[in-house]
Amino acid sequence: MTTEAAGVGKVVPGPAVRARSSLGSRIAQRLSGGLVRAVLIVVGLFWLMPTIGLLVSSLRSPEDMSADGWWHVFTKPSQLTLDSYQKLLENGDITGSLVNTVLITVPATVLVVVIGALAGYAFAWMEFPGRDWWFLTVVSLLVVPVQVALIPIAELFGKIGLFGSVFGVVLFHVAFGLPFAVFLLRNFFAEIPRELLEAARLDGAGELRLFARVVLPLGGPAVASLGIFQFLWVWNDMLVALVFSDSGSQPITVALQTQVRQFGNNIDVLAPGAFLSMVIPLAVFFAFQRQFVSGVMAGAVK
């Protein structure tokens, strides 16, 4: 019997049988179905229910709100009215506080983003004496709680005439927003490939031009994230505003709290005011969400 004939009856080992999928992968495949998506949509609607209720309440009269719940508007759409917003615009305290909120939030956000970006670039790519020690000092300021500095800074502002002014509130927010801004942007800018910066320097770009033409476009996601965080923090702040503002410089958060304290259940002013104070930060977030979720180095690939 030849060798070939002897091997006719033998089973030749074939390719390895594909291993069964793990329990985790099977669960993940089932969770990606349409039923789970429908459940998540329902959960999201329940999560948005307070916001929807506040919007509907701001479009109803005080009499209707005292008579029944806000959900009755779906069966009685004639209850919807803009009278509460008209009354809100006629309230000088609320409209003035909205203006103060913009005057506080916009400068505090712009200054933190601009100064933090410049300082982050300097700490990441510029050589100067004591750079690492200065950066460690900035990072150490992150652990300082705001409450610790309220009384000393209030006394300082009182001595130099900044207490109760819009500029004083802005200055406080900028001071406490810069450590996080420098830390975030420095770590982000340090991930930019050195070759890109060296190529720009070989083309004759100075530091400012390099920062504006190369670093900032690549750092768009980080800058947008910082701007969103700072805007939301300052816009929704009430602790700092309660301490450093007066009746002429108070933001919308303090004005709404004053309305509750003075008039009790003043819902015809509180509901539209609260909704306006909430919808503006949401609009800012959705305006910059594309930069917020974009790739870190997307600009370099293009």
What is the makeup of the main sheet? none
CATH fold descriptor of the largest domain: MetI-like fold
Domains (count): 2
Integer-rounded radius of gyration: 29 Å
Low-confidence spans: 1-9, 14-19, 295-302
SS elements, strand count: 0
Query: In one word, what is the shape?
Result: globular
CATH architecture of the largest domain: Orthogonal Bundle
- What is the straight-line distance between the termini? 69 Å
Question: In percent, how helical is the residue content?
Answer: over 70%
Give the name of the CATH superfamily of the largest domain: MetI-like
Order of helices and strands: HHHHHHHHHHHHHHHHHH
| Number of helical regions | 18
CATH level 1 name of the largest domain: Mainly Alpha
Category from helices, strands and their pairing:
mainly alpha
* Assembly level: single chain
Residues in β-strands, percent: under 5%
Query: What integer is the average pLDDT?
Result: 80
